Amino acid sequence: MRSTLNARSAILAEVPKGALFLLKRYGHQPIFGIKLSEPLDQPNGKPTVLLLNPGFGREGEADWHRIFQWEADEQCVSFGTDWIIQPDFAATSLSEINDPQQEACLTIGPQGIHFRAAPGEGFRAIYRHFIHVDTLDLAKDLGSAAFHLTGYRIFLNQGDLDNSRPPIYQHGV
Q1: N or C, fewer C-beta in 10 Å, the chain?
Q2: Are 34 and 52 in contact (CB under 8 A)?
Q3: CA-wise closest residue to 70 among 33, 106, 125, 105
C-alpha cells in the first residue's frame, strides 16, 4: 500500500533545501513556504525560508512573498522537493519591470521565472528580492528586461498536475 500524499512531519532543520512545507500555528492560518538554505549555511543557525502566504507585509507595502530567517526547531509538514509550479500566464496579466503592480508575485527575467519577494525580519531592508523557481538562487536585480505575473498554482508532483488533481497551494488565481 502507498499513500498518494507524500508528506511527513519534521522540524524545519530536517527538511531538505527546496522542500515545500506547511507551518500550522494554533490560532493562525496555515503558512506555506519553501526552504531556501540549511541552518548550517547561516551564521545564526536559522534556515532561510520563503513564505508564500500573503499577510506578512508591513503597513503600506506590497503584499509579496517574504524571506525570513526562521527557527530551525519549528515543527512543520514537509511535502518534499518534487513540487511543480504552474505560472498563470495570460498576456493581459503581464506587466513590465517598471510597472509597480502590487499583485505581481512572479517575475520573468533573463534567466527564467523568479518568485518576487520582500525581506522579512532578519534581512536588510531593500526593495525586493527575486528567487529563481528552479535553482532557488537569490537575485536582487533582474535588469530592465523583466515582466511580472500575478498568479500561480503549486502541485505536489508532476502526477498531480497530469491527473488534474487540485493544487496544494495557489496565489492570485
Answers
A1: N
A2: yes
A3: 33
Q: Which amino acid is at 149?
A: L
Q: Which is it for the CA torsion 159, 67, 77, 168, positive or negative?
A: negative
- Nearest of 83, 67, 93 to residue 134 by alpha carbon: 83
Residues 6+ apart with CB under 8 A from 147: 94, 95, 96, 97, 107, 108
Is residue 66 within 8 A of residue 136, CB to CB? The reply is: no
List pLDDT tens digits, range 44-89.
788 889 999 866 655 555 667 888 888 889 999 999 999 999 998 8
DSSP string, 32-67: EEEE-S-GGGSTTS--EEEE-SS--PPTTS---EEE
- Read off the pLDDT of residues 85-116 as tens digits, 9 standing for 90 and up: 999 887 766 666 566 566 778 888 888 999 98
